[in-house]
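Re: that backbone. Tokens:
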């Protein structure tokens, strides 16, 4: 382990930490949250958050202002159950996103779990049109997972816990104790490991973290052990992760026999006693060089923020560096922004500890001295608009620099609220502007290689 460790204080004041030669500052973005479960960096450049009681919100990363979108009425929050993981997916050719959430609900007196897709229309600050994609999954007040992760091929991974039915984790006909892979309409991808089955991997106890390394495409999960062997796993299609027959490594005679017979993938790293591993994210940004090609791992019981350097091929965890242990109490939600900032949600109102007066909080970790390179630094946009000021429903002609790829275009008002999103090519492009109120609007174009171009549009 690394040497970074400070005394536990559930409402400690943010400060700074040294990571190699980099000073990482910690500040509070927002307070008074109730058990944040998921944090995502959304396609609208806002943070998206679920809270276990059922609320979905957007957070302005510049101001910390929280805008609730929906409190889901049939969420059952009891024990560790409630509103859990989320994924936000733009709908091509529209001003809408698909918002996927996993949550526990009660039906016929039984606790269950389902995956639901909502519709978000830019500018409405609301979710609508719920569609159940997957339901009737057995659940308990513990061991229900669940994280969601969108893959580049527009399929979705979903983790499920064993719901305290341990043998179900080895039963391919059960959806518990698994990582599932499904299309965005809930159907089974044609290239899943077993035809007609959502099961991507099996033998999981309670996966609480899920991440993908952009550099290698490899997938990782963080998983609770019983009283021993919390795990971080390298996720490979159709592999077995051992539970309940194997705890941690294949190091006992009975475990070794099971592992050899059942295609078991051993974890990359384990912890005994357990930490209560939770949120997991991949970091590979120049803002904090010592965290490049690292997994960032949170824990609940120990309250650790750990950096786990990976080998170049992503198949080994080289060591564990703890930035802190216990300083901010229980930690669950984590995400990384395109600017290299790390956002962390505390979980001190989850019933397992005494919360501090400002809990729960969203913390921001950043290198404030970092200066983006010329590739990522915003540059002036050569923009010609006819007419300008542009009345509602006008068609504008945009003259842009040559772009290697299509750029994502975002139109925001003077308060930073997004009113439109689309894709634009370089050169001369015709843009049909959406209806909008009078005022000044900012058009931002972002390319996949990190370049950002900006221009202003006036609406009379």
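Recovered sequence:
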């Amino acid at each position: 382990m690394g040497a970074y460790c400070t005394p536990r204080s559930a409402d400690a004041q943010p400060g700074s930490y040294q990571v190699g030669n980099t000073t990482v500052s910690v500040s509070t973005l927002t307070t008074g949250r109730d058990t944040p479960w998921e944090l995502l960096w959304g396609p609208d450049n806002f943070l998206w958050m679920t809270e276990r009681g059922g609320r979905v919100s957007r957070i302005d990363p510049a101001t910390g202002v929280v805008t609730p979108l929906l409190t889901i009425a049939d969420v059952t929050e009891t024990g560790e159950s409630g509103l859990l993981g989320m994924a936000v997916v733009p709908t091509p050719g529209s001003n809408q996103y698909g918002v996927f959430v996993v949550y526990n609900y009660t039906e016929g007196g039984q606790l269950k779990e389902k995956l639901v897709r909502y519709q978000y229309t830019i500018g409405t600050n609301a979710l609508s049109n719920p569609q159940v994609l997957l339901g009737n999954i057995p659940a308990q007040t513990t061991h229900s997972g669940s994280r969601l992760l969108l893959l580049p091929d527009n399929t979705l991974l979903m983790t499920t816990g064993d719901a305290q039915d341990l043998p179900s984790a080895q039963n391919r006909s059960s959806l518990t104790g698994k990582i599932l892979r499904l299309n965005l309409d809930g159907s089974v991808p044609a290239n899943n490991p077993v035809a007609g089955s959502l099961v991507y991997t099996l033998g999981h106890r309670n996966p609480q973290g899920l991440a993908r390394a952009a550099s290698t495409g490899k997938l990782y999960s963080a998983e609770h052990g019983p009283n021993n062997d919390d795990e971080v796993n390298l996720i490979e299609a159709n592999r077995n992760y051992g539970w309940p027959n194997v705890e941690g490594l294949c190091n006992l005679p009975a475990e070794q026999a099971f592992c050899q017979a059942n295609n078991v993938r051993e974890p990359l790293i384990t912890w005994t006693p357990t930490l209560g591993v939770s949120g997991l994210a991949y970091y590979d940004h120049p803002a904090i060089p010592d965290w490049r090609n690292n997994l960032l791992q949170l824990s609940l019981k120990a309250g650790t923020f750990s950096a786990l350097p990976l080998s170049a091929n992503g198949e080994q965890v080289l060591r564990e560096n703890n930035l802190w242990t216990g300083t901010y109490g229980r930690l669950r939600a984590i995400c990384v922004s395109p600017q290299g900032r790390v956002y962390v949600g505390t979980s001190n109102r989850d019933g397992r500890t005494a919360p501090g007066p400002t809990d729960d909080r969203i913390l921001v970790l950043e290198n404030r001295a970092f200066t983006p390179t010329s590739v990522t630094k915003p540059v002036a946009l050569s923009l010609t608009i006819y007419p300008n000021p542009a009345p509602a429903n006008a068609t504008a002609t945009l003259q842009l620099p040559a772009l290697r790829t299509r750029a994502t275009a975002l139109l925001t008002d003077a308060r930073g609220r997004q009113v439109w999103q689309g894709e634009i090519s370089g050169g001369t492009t015709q843009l049909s502007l959406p209806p909008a109120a009078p005022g000044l609007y900012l058009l931002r174009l972002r390319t996949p290689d990190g370049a950002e171009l900006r221009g202003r549009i006036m609406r009379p």
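Residues 1-9, 374-383 have pLDDT under 50 and may be disordered. Residues 379-459 form a domain with the Immunoglobulin-like fold (CATH 2.60.40.1930).
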